[in-house]
Every structure is written in C-alpha cells, then in structure tokens.
C-alpha cells in the first residue's frame, strides 16, 4: 500500500470536487434555502405554527403512515421472493428470475401506475372477470382509495426492495439453515433466528431507499389515491404552483423532512438493527 | 394429529416462497400486458375485450408534434444525464473506494452523495426550485439537467463503487512498477476493467432520467416538457387510447435500455 502523499491528496480532493460540488449545490444548499424561507419573514415561527395546526398534522401523519405501511408490505413480500431466488431457484434460472422481478425498476412509474387504472376501474380487468364469471352482480369501486394507492406504491417500490435485499440474502450461508433444520428447528424458528438477523442490513438499506420516497410521493396518490386523503407532496406542489406562500411550504417540507429522518432514526435506534448495521 | 397438522403447515410454508414469486410475476406483468393489449384497440375509449386490432393510435402518437417534441427532449436530457452522471459517478466511486482522503472525509462524501435517497424527493425538488430561483437560474433545461444529474449521482456512484472495490489493486501497482504514470494506469487498466459497470451505469442513469417526474415537475417551468410530464398531464384528463399507445412506447424505450444492460458481461 502506498504511503499517503500530499500531491496525491490534493489530486484526490480535485477529483472529489465535481460530484461533491453537485451534491452540495443541489442537496445541501436547497435545504438551507428552505430552512431560511421557513423561518421568515421576520424570524417569526408563524409558518411552523400553521404547519402544526390539526389540518396539516393530519396530512403529515397520513404521509408517514403510508410510508411505514407500504415499506412494511414491500419487505414482507421481498423476503420470500429473495429467499427463493437466492436459495431455491435452480442456478441457471437465477439471473433471469432476478431480472424479471426487478425489470419494472427501469420503467416509468407514472405509466405503470396509470396501467393500474385499467385493472381496477369499473370497466377494468378485475371487475370484468368478477362480473363475467358471475361472482358479482355489479362492479365494485376498486379505484381511488387507500388500497389502490397501496397497490400502486408496492408495484413501483417492490423491485427496489427486492434488489437491495437480494444482496444480503445471497450472502446468507444456506448451510446454516440446513444445520438448523437438522437440529430440528421449524421454518418459523429458522426464519426468526437465522434468516431475519442475517438479512437485517439488507432490509435496513431497502427501507432507507424507499421509505422517504413513498412518504413524499406525489404522482401515485394523484393517479390512484383518494382525492380526500392528502399527502404532503400535494400540499407542497400546490403551494409551489398556485400560491406564493413559499414560507409555509418550506416549513411544511422541513417538518416533514424531520419526521422522515426521525422515523428512520427510530428504526436505527433499536439495538438489534444497530448491532447488525455495525457489520457494514 | 397435531403433528400431522404442523407437518402439513410446514410443507405449505416450504412452498410459500415459490408461490409468492409466481404471484409477484403475475402482479408485475399483468398491467403491462393489459396496456399493450388495450393499445391495439381502434376505439377512442377502449373497452375490455377490445373490438378489433389496429395500430391507429400508435400512428396518432408518432405524428403528434407535442409528444414527439417531449420524446426528443427526454432523450436529449437522458443522454446528457447518463454520460455526465456516469463521469461524476466514476469520480465519486474513486473518491469513496480508492482515494487517499481520510476515512471521515470519504464517509461524509458518501453520505452527501446519497442524500437524494433518504431525503423525500418532493422536499429536494422544492428546495432546488427555490434555490434556483434565488440564484437567478430560474426554470428550464439547465436546472432540469442539473436536477437529473443530482438525482442519478448516488445510483451511478454506488453502482461503480461496488465494482471498483472488487478490482485488484495489485494490477495498478504492477503497471506503476513497470513505469506507467497515473493517467496511463487509469486509461489502460482501471477504465477497461470497470467498463461493464460504466456501461450499466450509463444505461441505468438514462432510464432514471428518462422516467424522472417530480424533480422535472418543479424545475421545468413552462418551456420544457418531458415525456413523464406530458403523460402525467394526460392521465389527469382521463384514460384514453392515445395514452395507452404512448405508454407502450415509453415502456419500450426503457425496456431496450434494460435489455442491453442485462447482456453486459463482466470481463474475467
């Protein structure tokens, strides 16, 4: 290993400069801008007082709730999928299985969510099948509620969760599972004592990637959600486009950001997650 | 009796992962197939099952100037973002994996680059929109491209970094011992070995940019329209035949990028 030398270091800082500058200019500087706007005009806390009024508190909690709920569903589905692909799938089909499950990651989420309108609408595929086979007399209202929005979210974010979790699942030594089985452990025990602790870093990474984006999503609730249930992104977009009340929207964004980071931090505080994350 | 029930339940549990995979594939591909099927209907408001097969709406989409302009805009922004984002990602990956900077600096740089992953997109997008107005950059192509570069940077960086970390450092050391300077080592050793990762990064960054909606929504202003913005605007009006054909075309563009990426092989 070469000894660190000053010109090398200088060069490395120069290389670091371009990506770092971009990330600072478009990540950190905008957040500071928002923070300054949120406390103005005149250093009053009025914007924050308004954000914490019951009207907006509801939207904040609803967004966080949707984020937590959808992330949990994605993880619950991703566990059996990644387990099967990593440990059950015949070798020569493994790559194609992984590619098939993660392909939608490449596709446009506005288009994919729009496709669900045709599945769930009154004249859509599901209702056609249910009425056509005589299971139902008339069509159901399946669209524009929490369920349809949840389906849309899982549809978009499941591939991200699967891809991230797969790395952990692949590293899990299958011999450990076999050993536990030989010693008489049930499937449930194998899952709780071996699979879960060893794949926790993957689950944590997946949560980190999708949770904030689900809680702050705009397009999916607009296309598939109920018009009555307002998520934060719609409020911010409205403030940005229609009104000029940027201070309020900035305060709302900031409180929301703190809530998202706070809930992520809460997860990281649990001793078990922390112990597993330290291995990274 | 009890043990038989448990045994049956366990056998069921043993099959569960395979069943979930099968159901997930149905779940993931049904909507795409349904849109593809409906796009072939000649009717303005298609019904299931469709009455006849026709490519009428594809012709309509491909002769629609608004849509074609949006498509060209998206492709252009996508190409710039893909190449620029990959170059920046390579720099980021080098700094995180191989540079001589102190551990703390490297970790901090990684966290700052990863910021768009754990900060809600709407907050970042709104912040960039306000910051852009503040510094007088306003709205349009430049803010959109910068926003896209920022958004793809963590993906390109970590994709390339994963491969970079696997590279055998002794190869570069050997080249240096034989008298190659840093630039030659980078050009003849590092880049060729990273090539599949760089290509994968270009393609994935292109797909991310081509499909990006929310950041563009905040930064585009009235002069720039990308395909996702155009489609979102049409979705709000209602599900129409035009939208079905347009959706299929958008899916095909990204699927081609994905298909090319999946054929990339690692050398050695």
From TrEMBL, chain A:
One of its GO terms (biological process) is transmembrane transport. The keyword Transmembrane helix applies. SUPFAM superfamilies: MetI-like. Pfam families: BPD_transp_1 (PF00528). CDD domains: TM_PBP2. Residues 60-267 form the ABC transmembrane type-1 domain. Belongs to the binding-protein-dependent transport system permease family. CysTW subfamily. PROSITE patterns: ABC_TM1 (PS50928). The keyword NADP does not apply. It is a multi-pass membrane protein. The chain crosses the membrane at residues 20-39, 59-83, 95-119, 147-169, 190-212, 246-269. This is Spermidine/putrescine transport system permease protein. InterPro entries: MetI-like, MetI-like_sf. It is found in: Cell membrane. Keywords: Cell membrane, Membrane, Transmembrane, Transmembrane helix, Transport. The lineage of its organism: Archaea, Methanobacteriati, Methanobacteriota, Stenosarchaea group, Halobacteria. GO terms for cellular component: plasma membrane.
UniProtKB/TrEMBL annotation, chain B:
Residues 71-261 form the ABC transmembrane type-1 domain. It is found in: Cell membrane. Its main location: membrane. The chain crosses the membrane at residues 20-40, 67-97, 109-129, 141-164, 185-207, 213-232, 239-261. PROSITE patterns: ABC_TM1. GO terms for cellular component: plasma membrane. One of its GO terms (biological process) is transmembrane transport. It is a multi-pass membrane protein. It comes from the Archaea. InterPro entries: Bact_Polyamine_Transport (IPR051789), MetI-like (IPR000515), MetI-like_sf (IPR035906). Keywords: Cell membrane, Membrane, Transmembrane, Transmembrane helix, Transport. Pfam families: BPD_transp_1 (PF00528). The keyword Transport applies. CDD domains: TM_PBP2. Belongs to the binding-protein-dependent transport system permease family. CysTW subfamily. PANTHER family: PUTRESCINE TRANSPORT SYSTEM PERMEASE PROTEIN POTI. This is Spermidine/putrescine transport system permease protein. It comes from Haloarcula quadrata. The lineage of its organism: Archaea, Methanobacteriati, Methanobacteriota, Stenosarchaea group, Halobacteria.
């Amino acid at each position: 290993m070469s000894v660190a030398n000053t010109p090398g270091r200088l060069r490395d800082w120069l290389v670091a400069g371009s990506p770092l500058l971009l990330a600072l200019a478009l990540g950190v500087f905008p957040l500071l801008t928002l923070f300054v706007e949120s406390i103005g005009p005149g250093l009053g806390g009025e914007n924050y007082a308004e954000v914490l009024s019951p009207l907006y508190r509801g939207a904040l909690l609803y967004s966080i709730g949707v984020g937590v709920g959808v992330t949990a569903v994605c993880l619950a589905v991703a566990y059996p999928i990644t387990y099967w692909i990593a440990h059950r799938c015949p070798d020569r089909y493994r790559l194609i299985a992984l590619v098939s499950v993660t392909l939608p990651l490449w596709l446009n989420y506005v288009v994919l969510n729009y496709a669900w309108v045709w599945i769930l609408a009154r004249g859509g595929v599901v209702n056609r099948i249910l009425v056509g086979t005589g299971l139902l007399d008339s069509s159901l209202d399946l669209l524009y509620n929490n369920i349809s929005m949840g389906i849309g979210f899982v549809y978009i974010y499941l591939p991200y969760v699967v891809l991230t979790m797969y790395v952990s699942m692949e590293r899990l030594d299958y011999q450990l599972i076999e050993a536990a089985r030989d010693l008489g452990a049930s499937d449930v025990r194998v899952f709780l004592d071996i699979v879960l602790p060893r794949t926790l870093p993957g689950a944590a990474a997946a949560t980190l990637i999708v949770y904030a984006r689900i809680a702050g999503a705009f397009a999916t609730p607009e296309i598939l959600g109920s018009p009555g249930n307002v998520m934060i992104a719609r409020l911010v977009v409205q403030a940005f486009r229609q009104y000029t009340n940027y201070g309020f929207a900035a305060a709302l964004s900031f409180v929301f950001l703190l809530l998202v980071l706070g809930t992520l931090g809460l997860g990281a505080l649990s001793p078990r997650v922390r112990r597993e994350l330290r291995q990274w | 009796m009890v043990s038989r029930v448990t045994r049956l339940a366990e056998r069921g549990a043993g099959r569960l992962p395979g069943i979930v995979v099968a159901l997930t594939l149905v779940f993931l591909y049904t909507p795409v197939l349904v849109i593809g099927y409906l796009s072939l209907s000649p009717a303005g408001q298609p019904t299931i099952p469709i009455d006849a097969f026709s490519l009428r709406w594809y012709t309509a989409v491909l002769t629609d100037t608004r849509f074609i302009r949006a498509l060209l805009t998206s492709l252009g922004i996508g190409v710039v973002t893909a190449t620029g984002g990959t170059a920046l990602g390579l720099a980021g990956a080098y700094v995180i994996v191989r540079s001589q900077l102190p551990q703390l600096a490297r970790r901090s740089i990684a966290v700052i680059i990863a910021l768009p992953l754990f900060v809600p997109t709407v907050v970042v997008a709104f912040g960039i929109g306000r910051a852009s107005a503040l510094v007088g950059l306003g709205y349009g192509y430049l803010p959109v491209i910068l926003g896209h570069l920022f958004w793809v940077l963590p993906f390109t960086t970590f994709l390339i970094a994963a491969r970079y970390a696997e590279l055998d450092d002794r190869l570069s050391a050997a080249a240096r011992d034989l008298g190659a300077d840093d630039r030659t080592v980078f050009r003849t050793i590092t880049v060729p070995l990273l090539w599949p990762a760089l290509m994968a990064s270009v393609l994935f960054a292109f797909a991310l940019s081509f499909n990006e909606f929310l950041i563009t929504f905040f930064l585009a202003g009235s002069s720039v329209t990308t395909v996702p913005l155009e489609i979102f605007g049409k979705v709000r009006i209602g599900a129409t035949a035009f939208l079905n054909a347009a959706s299929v075309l958008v899916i095909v563009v990204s699927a081609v990028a994905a298909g090319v990426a999946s054929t990339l092989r690692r050398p050695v």
